[in-house]
């Protein structure tokens, strides 16, 4: 089975959601992405944690098929992010970001991971994402995720990075901010002109749009009767998407469309539980059943 290399943040998140607080639960962009990609094949995770990172989380990731030989354990505390959601869960505010050991993180890709053909650059400083690209050996497919912070403070590095990736994944607000264009179709065209073959714009509970050349694919999110915690849905989407592509070893249009569906399937599990609880327990049968629900949802 072809592995996927995933680099990015591993965190403790403190979440304030639905009138309840969840202190220091497992989070991080690379954590969510790895758990999602692991549904499709082995995952090689590269990131940093502090000495406070629990063995239970290490064991859970290993049991799900995540190779942690690229996990650095540094002196200090694990990256901590705290956020509060609005009552309708449609928006959130960052209350604090304690970079801790993540502040000095310089990704070191183990030799055994350098030739991995499918690489996900999870959301982190684009200068670090570029450092990963300088260490890997001609990957077949590179996906990069980003966030508004880097568009604001690392615009030049982000532009350099975008030129070197195959797929850029970002949300609607970030696509508008990065391109300076309000209309998403035109924003995607401008982002494609920067270099990536494919741009995916995530619209949260409104689904996702895939742009490649003149092709557009649009998929709704699965309508759910209960959402517990949207944290990590975007990372989960991207992780499942690249995990599926690595398994299929097929970058054709139909394969990319299926990858978007699998991304949305895993994101639907992610939001049903606090932290990684539901994502980490979803079974292959459940994933398959939701894939079929998407077929019914979009058939007419
Ligand atoms: P998402 O909900 O997909 O935007 O991702 C949420 C995850 O991103 C959380 O688990 C956080 O730990 C992580 N995160 C928040 N801020 C940052 C940051 N500045 N750099 C990297 N990861 C972050």
Total domains = 1
SSE succession:
EEEHEHEEEEHEHHEHHEEEHHH
CATH topology: UDP-N-acetylmuramoyl-L-alanine:D-glutamate ligase
Overall 3D form: globular
CATH architecture type: 3-Layer(aba) Sandwich
Radius of gyration from CA coordinates: 18 Å
The low-confidence parts are none
What do these coordinates show?
This protein is an alpha/beta fold and about 300 residues long. It has a single domain, classed as Ribokinase (UDP-N-acetylmuramoyl-L-alanine:D-glutamate ligase), CATH 3.40.1190. It is about 35% helix and about 25% strand. It has helices at about 30-35, 55-65, 125-135, 150-155, 155-165, 170-180, 185-195, 235-250, 255-270, 285-300; strands at about 5, 10-15, 20-25, 45-50, 65-75, 80-85, 90-100, 120, 140-145, 165-170, 200, 210, 215-220. A 9-stranded mixed β-sheet has the order 5-4-1-8-9-10-11-12-13, with helices on both faces. A 4-stranded mixed β-sheet has the order 3-2-6-7. Strand 4 (about 45-50), helix 2 (about 55-65) and strand 5 form a beta-alpha-beta unit. Helix 1 packs parallel to helix 8 and helix 3 runs parallel beside helix 5 (about 155-165). The longest helix is centred in the C-terminal third of the chain and has 18 residues, at about 255-270.
